[in-house]
Amino acid sequence: MGERVESGAGEGSGYRFKVPVLDLGAHGPGERRDAAERRERVLWAARELFAERGVAAVSMYEIGRYAGVGQGTLYRRYEHKGALCSALLAESAECFAGEIRERARSEEPALAQLEHLLVRLAGFNEANAPLLGAIRDAAGGERRSGMYRNPFYQWLRATVVALLSRAVTEGEAGTLDVECIADMVLAPLNIDLYLYQREGLDMEPERITRSLRRLLASGLRGAG
Questions:
Q1: Weakly modelled stretches of the chain, pLDDT under 70
Q2: Paired residues of 16 in beta bridges
Q3: Measured distance CA(86)–CA(150) in Å, rounded
Q4: What is the pTM of this model?
Q5: d(Cα 73, Cα 63) in Å, to the nearest integer?
Q6: All domains of the chain, ordered by start, with CATH?
Q7: What is the rounded CA–CA span in Å between residue 23 and residue 54?
Q8: SS in 3 state form for 38-55?
Q9: Of 55, 73, 90, 199, whose CB neighbour count within 10 A is largest?
């Protein structure tokens, strides 16, 4: 994940903040044609099987067989099912990141942009819950903290840090430990908690995001 410096809101403010660029590294520029073809077959097979039977019901072994790819080749490319699901999410994640980054170029207040990001993130969760759930399920043992080190979460975190820093600089928020608070801002939309509220408590997405926006608005604007 790289970073690009953009001008902050407000003409003549002199403030500049870093807008992170999401780079999921799905494949390198020097990828061989045969390797690219195998990768596409594996992703195609996963999409087909997931659509037919659901993400949780399909094994890596079945994906490899359906794609006509050996198990050794499959696991060299994707060490576990969560990694494969991350690859399937790459296009959606990059589109999401592009929209948020483009909005960050505007003069809209930073906290309003942060609220928009969280609403869109809830929508991303809603649209991709099965894949996100599989990624979470794969994050056991030594991989437990991997969800927080993956490029998408690191991009989210860096974007929230940038927006909070801008909010402090422009007087929207009081003094904040932005590095610490960024993770707290994102925590309510962690896929585990989100699905518990959606499915376990039968809460609508609008209710979740409305409550989160109100909490942030009162907490961040009242910080000191």
A1: 1-20, 23-30, 139-146, 222-224
A2: 7
A3: 9
A4: 0.78
A5: 12
A6: 2-8+21-221 (1.10.357.10)
A7: 28
A8: HHHHHHHHHHHHHHHHCC
A9: 55
